[in-house]
Amino acid sequence: PDRFKAMFPTNYDGPILDWPRYERVTEPQDQIDELRANYFALLSLCDHLLGRFLDYFDEHDMWKDTALILTTDHGFLLGEHDWWAKNRMPMYEEISHIPLFIHHPDFASKAGERRKSLTQTIDLMPTFCELVGAKVPSEVEGKSLLRLLEKDGPRREAAMFGYWGGGVNVVDGRYTYFCYPRE
To answer: What pLDDT is recorded for position 91?
Structure first.
């Protein structure tokens, strides 16, 4: 919406630039500024909608009996490292270090605390299973995150991440090993 775009004015005067190519940055500065501004406007809309969702939790006193988990699948480069988007470049921190927020009524006293434990997206399904009392199938390698809400502690020595056709990466919380497929 225009009200969010207006928060990020640029000097660009051309056709709509609302999504960059998944490629190296080659655009002139006015186009770079416009692409970033439009992305920031989109994020502002998302923040606004998340705020409305959290306001709904407040208005209906849902914090005392409803768990809430918020995450995403990947980050997005906006010219950092001279790249746009994701997929073709190394999985830089901006792409691979994704947000994870968990609220559970039983651990409300821990609200606002951060955890250092390595987690992975594969941990979400066992977490949801534990939340509803369902059995986690034996072949599942993820681990429920609910115990981390009470106390931070090591969950695993390392975590793997990557995507099809790209590098497979391993992180131990301090170092990251990138292993790329042979061409």
So the answer is: 86
Q: What is the pLDDT of residues 100-125, one digit of tens each?
A: 999 999 999 999 999 989 999 999 99
d(CA 6, CA 105): 38
Q: Looking at this protein, which amino acid is placed at residue 66?
A: T
- Residue indicated by tokens 């590098």: 167
- Residues 25, 74: Cα–Cα separation, whole Å: 19
Give the pLDDT confidence score for residue 142 in this predicted structure: 94
Q: How many angstroms separate the most distant Cα atoms in the chain? A: 57
Q: Which residues of the chain register pLDDT less than 50?
A: none
pLDDT at 163: 80
Residue pair 110/150 in contact by the 8 Å Cβ criterion: yes
Instruction: Give the residue among 13, 11, 3 at the shortest CA–CA distance from 33.
Output: 11
Q: Taking the CB of residue 5, how many other CB atoms lie within 10 A of it?
A: 17
**Got the DSSP string for the chain?**
-HHHHTTS-----SS---S--SSB--S-HHHHHHHHHHHHHHHHHHHHHHHHHHHHHHHTTGGGT--EEEE-S---EESGGGBEESSSS---HHHH---EEEE-GGGGGGTT----S---GGGHHHHHHHHHTPPPPTT-----SHHHHH------S-EEEE-TTS-EEEE-SS-EEEEPPP-
